Amino acid sequence: MEWLWKLVEALVVKIFGLSMESRLGGSIHFFIYDVIKIFILLTVLIFSISYIQSFFPPERTRKILGRYKGITANTLAALLGTVTPFCSCSSIPLFIGFTSAGLPIGTTFSFLISSPLVDLASILLLASVFNWKIAIAYVVVGLVLAVIGGTIISKLKLEKYVESFVYSNKILEVDQGELTKKDRVDFALEQVADIIQKVWLYILIGVGIGAAIHNYIPEEIITALLGKDKWYSVLLATFVGVPMYADIFGTLPISEALVAKGVGVGTALSFMMGVTALSLPSIIMLKKVVKPKLLFTFIGIVVLGIIIIGYTFNIFGHIFI
């Protein structure tokens, strides 16, 4: 969006009378440009994704997944997660519904990992912030993590660690009928309004933190803590990200600023994946429906996968930049 960059630059220089070379001018430009860019992309992308999603309501998704078993089911669940962009918390009711409907828990967990971690909007936003190589690689490793995670849980035979009430919670079968084009457009517009209402504050906070990192925190401090040469940077980024609650739209500006300061791509992506795939509220909610052994197995698999992905991106980061 070069036109937007120049427009905001003119605003900062001519209207605000600030130099782009100054910290304040650079921070204001970063903040205004990224906020407008993300909201434009978000509006267009969520509308498009929601229109597609209208063809895959939870009940239809459950029926599709119910036809397959084994790694095929895990793979399909991970792929369906990309077109059903639920956050880590909203995926929990789907876990209950899918499991009570008789789907293997491994298949359900593949969906549970993929849905908040990888969606079409995040792919395009990643490409706009970094590049298409990183965006495509992120999607691939996210799907691989979802498939492997669900497969491991299936092999471990952990069904007995799901709370008994989940299996007795029957889904109400509803005939949704054939939606018209207007129905789908209305649904997409409602989703745009609903999602923006939920994430706007996280976007402002994320962009604000990104602007501060980009212009006020010295590069020496950032690289001293999370530099490419620090063996623990991925571990630190992952464990800092996991307890947080946000989505990719709020964490992308932070990751962008970290990479600009010399932080490895893998470290920045580990932070982003930790925030989106796992969050304290979602873990608390999941604790209500599964027993500790299954909960910690799920957390351990996802955290370990994120760490491996982070180190892999750092080692081969030169390929993607």
From TrEMBL:
Highest taxon above the source species: Bacteria
Keyword Transmembrane helix among UniProt keywords: yes
UniProt topology in membrane: Multi-pass membrane protein
Cited Pfam families: ArsP_1
InterPro entries: DUF318, UPF0718_permease
Taxon lineage: Bacteria, Bacillati, Bacillota, Clostridia, Lachnospirales
Keywords in alphabetical order: Cell membrane, Membrane, Transmembrane, Transmembrane helix
GO CC annotations on file: plasma membrane
Designated name of the protein: Permease
